[in-house]
Structures are given as structure tokens and as C-alpha cells.
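Whiteboard transcription, Tuesday session. T.W. wrote the C-alpha cells on the left side:
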């Protein structure tokens, strides 16, 4: 009470100008104290340990798994080109589904050795561009020449291979006959597998080599830091599900006037929904810092837990993630996703709404609390 009395005497004895300056100083001091508290919480978090968990338990194993699948699949493809039969084609198709499912767990790490380098785009574009261009693929086969380092990324990668081995409205006998009647088709398939195997292999080698330590040690939050790159690719990978795996076929993207079901991912194999579900599972693993075998490590969730307001955001994020997964579970397994879009399945519309709601939590709210700038443009104003 004595302090309060003296303060009032002092305050009443100064001019209006000085009163204003005095009050502003108190406000600024209080604000700075709050900001410092928030920053101190972030600064006490061990980002290096988080990056080590991502590197050793999620990223390197993901690329290693894809490369292992591709190595086996390349051998099967070589065998198929020699022994052209529906039995070997079955093995090749099953192997493709398995390998491409693994790819869903690695396509969010499109930076570092998997990032852009000169004219080369990131691995996600070199290996996972969809839809595949039927006309470009067939033109290359007819010409008997191709350049797998050019700008025609929709004529190579996983989805170009899918088109060749699953065919478009073809029976397995017709697919086998197409390869039997065209040495160029067989050569192109081999070239696609080799190119994909080499690209993924280069990335895997880098993560198992010097890039690992570089990634872990670069533990700041500036634009070039590992945390920033990982976070931005995490959000961009999430948005690619909403915008391109679902929004584009549903006709939700800017400039579209109707649904375009032929633009789904994995059109020819009919595995669009399988891949979408795997991709969502991969996003959830990154959020949690959780490995494929269920080992729960330090991830973005723990990072937020150390930030002012983070606990509330975690609760809101996971509530919306639960709603999204429930909406996804409501989508029937059959018919194929493209057919469901054609028939106007209301479950897909509901799912898109939940994906749109989720964007706020992963993108704007998380970016704000962690103080990490969004460095890419999704092109839809989210």
C-alpha cells in the first residue's frame, strides 16, 4: 500500500506528456517480458534431438524402404521383359503398389538431397508427378528415343510406370501383348525403372552419408534451417493431398468448373484411395515424430508443447485430425476413387471440407506459434 501511495503522488506530479511516455514505457516493458517468455520456451527446446529423430527414424528409413522395393521391382521388370506373361505381370503390378505405398511415406522430404538442383526439380516432381501423360509416353515409345532428364516429368517416374503396366482399360493379356509387340515399349519400361531407382538411390545415399549430420546440426529456425525446410515440406505435402489428390479431381481448384475424375493419383491401378490414406498416415507420423514401426520420438507435437499457447493448438489440431480421419474412413473402398467422383459421392465432399479445415492448424497457426515462415506458395490463398 505504501508503494501504491508513493506511485500516485509521483504520477500526479508529472505533466501529461511525461505521463504518456511513462505509461508507454510500462506497456513496452510488459510486452517485452511476455515476448521473452515465449522465446525462452522455444529456445529451451532441443531442436537438434528432434531433427535427429526425424533423420534416423523417419526420413532415412523411408527412402531406404522405397529403394529396397524399387531394387526388387526392377529385377521383376527385367524378368517380365524376358518372360512376357500375365503371371509375371501380376507380380510386377503388386510390387508397384507396394513400392508406391512406401513412396507416400517419403514424399514429404523434398529438400536437401531430394530438393531442386539447377534444372532438376525436387524428387517429388521427378518421381511422383501425376497424372501421367499418355500421349508423351506413347510418342516416346513410337520414336524409340527419350530423355529422362528433360522437362517432361509427366512421362517418367512412378505414375508413368503405372500407366505402362496397368494399361488404360486393357486386360492383362492385352497389356502383355502390347509389350510383346514392341521392343521399344519394353526398353522404355526398363529405362523408367532404372531412372527412378537411380534418383531415389542418390537421395538415400546422401541421407546415409554426410547430409545426415548437416541436417541435424543446422538446428535454427531461419529460412535455410533444417527445421524450416522440414516444416515447410511437411505442410506442402499435406496441402498436396488436399489440393491435388482430392481437390483437383473434385474440381475444387481455381479455374475449374467441374469435377475431373481422370486427374486422380494412381488412376490406372485404381489405388487412389489406398495412396491417399497412406499419405495421411505419413503426415500424422511426421506430426508425432513417430516411425513406421510405432516408435514415438520427438516431433512437431513436442515442439509445440514447449511454446506459449502450444498445448491449446495441439488439442485443436488433434481434434481436427480425428475429424479428418473419421471422414476418410467413411469413404467406401470401392468402386475406385475416380468412379466415386464421377457418381458424386457426398462422402468425398465432406472429406474435402475436413481437409480444408485442417489447413489452418498445420499452416497458419503452427507457423505463427513456432515463428517459422511459410516459404512456398500453394496458390489457393490458404
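and on the right, the sequence the group agreed on:
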Amino acid at each position: 500500500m505504501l508503494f501504491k501511495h508513493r506511485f500516485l503522488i509521483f504520477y500526479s506530479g508529472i505533466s501529461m506528456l511525461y505521463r504518456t511516455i511513462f505509461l508507454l514505457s510500462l506497456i513496452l516493458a510488459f510486452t517485452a517480458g511476455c515476448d521473452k517468455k515465449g522465446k525462452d520456451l522455444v529456445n529451451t527446446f532441443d531442436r537438434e534431438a528432434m531433427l535427429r529423430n526425424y533423420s534416423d527414424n523417419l526420413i532415412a528409413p523411408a527412402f531406404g524402404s522405397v529403394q529396397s522395393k524399387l531394387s526388387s521391382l526392377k529385377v521383376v521388370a527385367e524378368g517380365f521383359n524376358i518372360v512376357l506373361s500375365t503371371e509375371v505381370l501380376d507380380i510386377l503390378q503388386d510390387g508397384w503398389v507396394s513400392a508406391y505405398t512406401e513412396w507416400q511415406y517419403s514424399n514429404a522430404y523434398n529438400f536437401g538431397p531430394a530438393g531442386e538442383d539447377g534444372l532438376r526439380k525436387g524428387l517429388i516432381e521427378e518421381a511422383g508427378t501425376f497424372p501421367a501423360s499418355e500421349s508423351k509416353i506413347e510418342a516416346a515409345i513410337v520414336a524409340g528415343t527419350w530423355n529422362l532428364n528433360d522437362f517432361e516429368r509427366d512421362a517418367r517416374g512412378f505414375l508413368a510406370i503405372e500407366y505402362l503396366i496397368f494399361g488404360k482399360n486393357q486386360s492383362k493379356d492385352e497389356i502383355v501383348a502390347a509389350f510383346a509387340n514392341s521392343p521399344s515399349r519394353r526398353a522404355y519400361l526398363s529405362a523408367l525403372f532404372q531412372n527412378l531407382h537411380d534418383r531415389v538411390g542418390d537421395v538415400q545415399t546422401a541421407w546415409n552419408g554426410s547430409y545426415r549430420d548437416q541436417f541435424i546440426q543446422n538446428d535454427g529456425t531461419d529460412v535455410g534451417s533444417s527445421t524450416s525446410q522440414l516444416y515447410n515440406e511437411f505442410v506442402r505435402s499435406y496441402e498436396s493431398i488436399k489440393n491435388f489428390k482430392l481437390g483437383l479431381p473434385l474440381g475444387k481448384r481455381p479455374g475449374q468448373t467441374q469435377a475431373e475424375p481422370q486427374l486422380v493419383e494412381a488412376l490406372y491401378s485404381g489405388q487412389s484411395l489406398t495412396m491417399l490414406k497412406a499419405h495421411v498416415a505419413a503426415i500424422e507420423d511426421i506430426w508425432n515424430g513417430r516411425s513406421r514401426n510405432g516408435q514415438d520420438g520427438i516431433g512437431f507435437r513436442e515442439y509445440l508443447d514447449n511454446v506459449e499457447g502450444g498445448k491449446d493448438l495441439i488439442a485443436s489440431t488433434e481434434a481436427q485430425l480425428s475429424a479428418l480421419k473419421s471422414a476418410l474412413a467413411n469413404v467406401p473402398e470401392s468402386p475406385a476413387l475416380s468412379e466415386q467422383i464421377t457418381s458424386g459421392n457426398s462422402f468425398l465432399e465432406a472429406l474435402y471440407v475436413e481437409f480444408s479445415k485442417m489447413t489452418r492448424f498445420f499452416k497458419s497457426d503452427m507457423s505463427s506459434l513456432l515463428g517459422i515462415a511459410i516459404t512456398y506458395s500453394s496458390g489457393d490463398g490458404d
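Someone added at the bottom: Residues 313 and 365 are 8 Å apart (CA to CA).
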